[in-house]
User: Fold this.
Amino acid sequence: MDGVPCLRVSQCHAQHFRRSLESSGAVDLTLCLLKETDGTVLLPILPSCLSQLDLQSLRSKVAADSYCEIVWSQTPLQSKKRRGKTGGSKLEKILQPLMESHGETWTEELRRDLPRSFQRHGDLVLLGDGCFSLPQWRKMEQQLWSAVATGLGAERLAKMSRISKDGFRSPVVTMLLGERSWVKHVDNGITYEFDVTKCMFSIGNITEKLRVAGFDCRGETVVDLYAGIGYFTLPFLVHAGASHVHACEWNPDAIEALQKNLEANGVSECCTIHRGDNRQLQLCDIADRVNLGLIPSSEDGWPVACRLLKRKTGGILHIHQNVTSPLPNTTASPAVNDATQRVSGKKANREVWQAWADDAANRITCLLRDITGVSWTTNIQHIERVKSYAPHVHHVVLDLDCRPS
Ligand SMILES: C[S@@+](CC[C@H](N)C(=O)[O-])C[C@H]1O[C@@H](n2cnc3c(N)ncnc32)[C@H](O)[C@@H]1O
Assistant:
């Protein structure tokens, strides 16, 4: 088997998923769950149960907005008890002799530099940052990547290093094995194709994609100001039933993927792509809904979003933002236990999100008045936590209902 099959779930729903999997006997109890740095948790699954897993019904059992997907993980999942007895992961078994044949000693440091988890897009495995970083690996050159691909059951191999700061939020992904870098990813019945070396596929945003898919947008005109490869444009069209989506995007590589994806999902007739900087968009007074899916902040898009809302009836803005919470008070009295601190931490987070949302609502109300010359009422419908972006930084979405008074 290529690593350990796991269900990747968001941390807030991990216990629900675990209980649900346990009741169907699908959890591999000999292995530990693993917390990832992106706020997700890997739950090890028994390989024999993999084909019977129905992700859709699991999700609906846990929570309508929950997220889960199958990924493959490596050794650190092994329970401490068993780690000493079994001979390590398949990858370790393949790479140790290879390394030794190049005159290197296999060390604990090398073992820890093996990938802990990875994304699988068909026959391409995308390794994360923070593996194969030691100089010893370089000795083996292409032989290493062929061996890793064999170990992980892949034909092609790529590695992510970091998000570039070129304004396109492109991932820095390099192909290690294989030439073709286009991949296909299917989630919630939608096919997304994209070039892994040029466009970003944000797995952590799946909960928000599912939420969008659950909206009822029949008869609505939607503007997606930061369309990318169609992460939200497609659920708006395919599941939420929007009549038309205007998709704005300035990265030519993302536009190429977006066009393919609209066609592949049979909705290109209902979408107009606007190339270039959305701040220059000439449209106004057309939208029932505007999606502002850019983090760390979509503030640059607020004036254009306000111009886009229908003047007579108004509409809803979905505003994405990374909100930073205050650091917990480390001098708290020793009488305050962990559980109490966790509860007060959550409450503090919610208060910070609410304060940010109140401020955003006030500023949008002013923008709408200045742009249209009449007064507007804004209402915070909902604040959704999408994911933990970094320690104390949460990606949240504000659903703001805006109506002319
Ligand atoms: C992070 S992606 C968002 C994709 C999707 N909303 C998500 O959350 O996964 C942001 C996209 O917005 C595009 N973008 C950023 N600023 C833009 C602007 N001013 N005009 C048009 N597109 C822009 C980027 O090229 C990128 O494809």
